[in-house]
Design a protein that fits this description.
8-stranded mixed beta sheet
Length: about 170
């Protein structure tokens, strides 16, 4: 368990957290990230609980889940070039908390956990190109553009950002 200076902390995601995430609804244009409501919810819960994907809940001082993250292949998007060795990080913040200046503390806790417990040499994020808030946040943490691609068959454009564990490349 890691506790950040802003009192966000990470713990392995539990089944109750996974079901909570499936109920999140982001407003346009971020509705792109809304979980799909179909007959496969149990599949998504199993994926969240798969230990290989290292999903974690991000909690505040009261133990309320403010978001989640993953460390590994779940952070990759089909069509991207992931041939370089790096720790992929996937991130999701509770919709009602986005756009309110919480991103620095939230992502800082995730980054601190990754650096303190997983010891990667390089870190990588894949972000939808329209998500300017997230791109700006990650650039403020020293991530730099490595590549752009379009997911197939959706043709959604993405950016791959990287940085060294020590800081900017």
């Amino acid at each position: 368990m890691s506790v950040s200076d802003d009192n966000y902390w990470l713990k392995p995601l539990e089944e109750r957290h996974a079901w909570d995430i499936l109920g999140w609804e982001y407003p346009f244009p971020y509705d792109f990230y809304n979980p799909s409501f179909d007959d496969h919810q149990e599949h998504y819960v199993r994926q969240f609980l798969n230990p290989e994907l290292k999903f974690h809940a991000v909690l505040d001082t009261c133990g309320t889940m403010v978001g989640f993250c993953s460390f590994g292949s779940d952070g990759q998007v089909s069509g991207g070039d992931y041939s370089d060795e790096a720790l992929d990080i996937g991130v999701g913040m509770r919709p009602e908390l986005t756009g309110q200046g919480n991103g620095t503390a939230f992502f800082g806790a995730i980054l601190d956990h990754a650096l303190g417990t997983l010891n990667p040499e390089f870190l990588r994020l894949t972000v939808a190109k329209f998500n300017l808030r997230a791109l700006k946040l990650y650039e403020n943490f020293g991530f730099e553009l490595k590549d752009e691609f379009s997911e197939q068959p959706s043709a959604v454009p993405y950016r791959i950002l990287v940085r060294t564990a020590a800081g900017p490349i």
